[in-house]
Amino acid sequence: xxxxxxxxxxxxxxxxxxxxxxxxxxxxxxxxxxxxxxxxxxxxxxxxxxxxxxxxxxxxxxxxxxxxxxxxxxxxxxxxxxxxxxxxxxxxxxxxxxxxxxxxxxxxxxxxxx
Length: 114
Known about the structure:
Blueprint (H helix, E strand, L loop, with lengths): L2 H8 L3 H8 L3 H9 L6 H11 L3 H4 L20 H12 L2 H15 L8
Helix pairs in contact: 2-3
C-alpha cells in the first residue's frame, strides 16, 4: 500500500488522517505497516483525501493511473505522458473533441479496431 509514501510526500501526519477518517492514529499506522487493510469505504475516503485513485493507494497503478497486474505496468513514452497530462486537464467537452480529432487523423474510430 502506498499510504505512507503519499502521506509523507504531502506532509500529512497520521493523526490528521485518523481525524479525517474518524479512527485512532494506530489504525493508520497499521494500514501503513500492512498489519491491517482499510475497508472499501475507508479506501475511497483515503483516495479522495489525497486526490489519487484507490488503485494507486493499493500499489496497483503508477503516478499516471496505469493499472498494474502482477506488478507489471505498461511503460509510457515521454510523448504519451505529455498527451495524458494534457488530456487530464481538459473538460469533458474538450476530451470528446480531442478524441474525435485523433480518430480523424488515423481514420479509425477508437471504439473500433483501435
